[in-house]
Amino acid sequence: MGALILSRNVYGNTARSGFTLVEILVVLLLLGIMASVVAVRAEQDQRRILQREATRFAASLEQAIAMAQYQAVTLGVSAQGSTYRFWRRDGDGQWHVITATEPLAPHMLPDGFDARPQHYAGASVARDAILPLRASGRNEPFDLVLATRDWLARIRADPLNRVRIDIAPNAS
Fold this sequence. Notes:
Number of domains: 1
CATH architecture: 3-Layer(bab) Sandwich
Strand content: 25-35%
Radius of gyration: 29 Å
Helix content: 25-40%
CATH topology: minor pseudopilin epsh fold
Oligomer: single chain
């Protein structure tokens, strides 16, 4: 005759191994909630970083516009890939990158960012265009874009040299 041996826990009940379906579902629910919180937080961080970079770029644009007027020279701005640059036009009409002035030195954007000019005087422009900032202060309206996978910052300058930033979800 074989004996059936069951182990008993402290309450006198038969011990069981493994988890119940309810316990597994509770754990999965908690993991799902934590994952969604992390995803929302990461998206907010990306937007916050984009806001910071767009604000920095806008401040540099304002500095360049003021410098062009103060020094009575034509400066320019370009944005391509992960870098934006400011330029000075010499007497022969050639553009030279500004590197000595800190706010106008070339700036590398964080990984995953794309910078590009979009419009100048109401027309689309090439990705490698240099947008002029005139010494007279009478500039055409223009806008440049800083984009991430999820967000888009449009940096706009009007003819009165006011610079504005608009941030929206990236539709493309």
